Amino acid sequence: METLLALTIGALTGAAIYLMLAGNLMRFIFGLVLISNAANLTIFAAGRLTEGAPPLIAEGADTLTGTAANALPQALVLTAIVIGFGLFAFAIVLVFRAWTTLGTLEPDEMRLAEPPEARP
Amino acid sequence: MSWLLSLPIAIPFATAVLAFLLRDRSAGRWVSVGGSALLLLAAALLMRATLAEGVIAGQMGGWPAPFGITLVADLLSAVMVLITAIIALAVAVYALADIDARMEHLGYHALFNVLIAGVTGAFLTGDLFNLYVWFEVMLIASFGLLVLGGRPEQIDGGVKYVALNLVSTILFLTGIGLLYGMTGTLNMADLAQAVDGTDQGLLTVVAMLFMIAFGVKAALFPLFFWLPAAYHTPAFSVSAVFAGLLTKVGVYALIRMFTLVFDHDTGFTHQILLWVAGLTMVTGVLGAAAQSDMRKILSFHIVSQIGYMILGLALLTPLALVGAVFYLVHHIVVKANLFLIAGAAQRLTGSTELSRIGGLYKSAPLLAVLFLIPAFSLAGFPPLSGFWAKFLLVKAALEAEGWVIAGVALAVGLLTIYSMTKIWAAAFWAPHPDGIAPRLSLIAPRERAALLAPVAGLAAVTIVIGLAPEPFVAFAEAAAAQILDPSAYVTAVLGDPK
């Protein structure tokens, strides 16, 4: 299971970096979504993987017995997904706005804030 | 005591809600000012309590550490919260004149207060994942503030700011995940003990992830390019609060993590920090020398000044950390003030582009004096606050036998004077190219007071720190001692280990 997750994380990160370096804002956003999912999977995998072991305390007992799924990484991933959703929603709207006001999606052509030096 | 810890976070949030509801009335802006004043009071109380009782910790929701979320204030956290409150109040007053009704309708005051809540939350939290959440609160509010108004330059700067900060966030998250996998805890005090038994090589890898993530936030070389691309585009109030506080949260996080948790292999990690500090100082100051717009020059100077603080962390001697803490406090006040002054200069002369402005010394001598104080302090002139900050750091570098880095720090100080004189000569001394005399009396009296009162207040803070540095240095020494020996911090959070 760990191996499968590790390979998935690797593939997601690789694809994400390729997209993010492509020099186009829309691709950058897609890359960002992929790499954030890779980060979420990393948290998930780092917090001990179990199969079919819900963390339920048996009736009459006070504590968990034996191995059980770790609920904390799942809570962390959930939080990260929610926060990520908000950030990506903003980023996509910003990219759309950049396209309508600046007329381009290539960051290299966005030089309004930092105009290139006028050649003498 | 936990109410003292949660107040500096709760007050700005409550203010934000109120200010949003009242955003179309003039009461909205006064809510923002009042909220900031309350925050200052709460921060002062917190500071008094930390001075009297040492490190204060509170467990949210009654869950004992390390299971619940801990809020904790040592001297460093307390002073950062206090200085945040001072800047918040100054900028809230300044915004009375700087922010127009349209920006207010779009929710400027609400976003501003959410930003402040994020900053104080990041300073007070004792939980790593909670720190991530506060970073996000701060980030999303700063995104909103940066593009508020929607001028094309803002969108352009915003794209670069958002993109690089999101990447840093994801690295931070990955680092948290890996660190949790290695230690099974996210409480920073607990982490400080738990990392001892782990694979030290892997720990260094995780430390580097954190260094890069916080390095982007703190605008370290070579990760600072989002800063000069964005900071000169938004409203002056916004760029002042960004310049004062945002990068410093990154510096604070670096200081916290690289003294509390990642102090296992300082020969490697702090050596890298030392190189980064030197390069940050040099590239920042050279970048500034090449600019001709007031706000762009000041933006690059943020980068170069961050290098000094990281130098203090990298040397990791008691004196160096004293210097770093002193520098943080001094720099936040001075830098925010310079951006506020740039705003007043733009209001008077119509631009911040140095070739298009001038004549301020003759027609607005008060503003000229107010500019000289933070500008000379930034460059490190005695007896202003910047002199003591640089003096402590250079002395620490010499004591640690870092001759080269001490030389670099001094040379960068000289080049800072060059940039400040450039602004002085063009904006203040030279006559205005259009021949107008930009008098302060051209601004309506109430607006003039709102613009100049915060500037004068922050300049007074700079002078007080400069003329009577001893209590501040003594305070920085106590703060640095707590940072270097985290046992008090750990005990306050986890209880007495018996």
Automatic annotation (TrEMBL), chain A:
UniProt-annotated location(s): Cell membrane
Pfam family, one: Oxidored_q2
Gene3D superfamilies: 1.10.287.3510
Family matches, as InterPro entries: CPA3_antiporter_subunitC, NUOK/Mnh_C1-like
Keywords, in A-Z order: Cell membrane, Membrane, Transmembrane, Transmembrane helix
Membrane association type: Multi-pass membrane protein
Keyword DNA-binding: no
Transmembrane feature ranges: 25-46, 75-99
Chief place where the protein resides: membrane
Family affiliation: Belongs to the CPA3 antiporters (TC 2.A.63) subunit C family.
PANTHER family per record: ANTIPORTER SUBUNIT MNHC2-RELATED
UniProt protein name: Multicomponent Na+:H+ antiporter subunit C
From TrEMBL, chain B:
Localization of this protein: Cell membrane; Membrane
Principal place of residence: membrane
Residue spans crossing the bilayer: 6-23, 30-51, 71-94, 106-125, 131-149, 161-182, 202-226, 238-260, 272-290, 297-319, 325-345, 366-384, 404-429, 449-468
Membrane protein topology class: Multi-pass membrane protein
UniProt keyword list: Cell membrane, Membrane, Transmembrane, Transmembrane helix
Domain NADH:quinone oxidoreductase/Mrp antiporter transmembrane: 126-411
Pfam family, one: Proton_antipo_M
InterPro entries to which the protein is assigned, alphabetical: CPA3_Na-H_Antiporter_D, NADH_UbQ_OxRdtase, ND/Mrp_TM
Protein function: NDH-1 shuttles electrons from NADH, via FMN and iron-sulfur (Fe-S) centers, to quinones in the respiratory chain. The immediate electron acceptor for the enzyme in this species is believed to be ubiquinone. Couples the redox reaction to proton translocation (for every two electrons transferred, four hydrogen ions are translocated across the cytoplasmic membrane), and thus conserves the redox energy in a proton gradient.
Family stated for the protein in its record: Belongs to the CPA3 antiporters (TC 2.A.63) subunit D family.
Protein name, UniProt field: Multicomponent Na+:H+ antiporter subunit D
Species of provenance: Rhodovulum iodosum
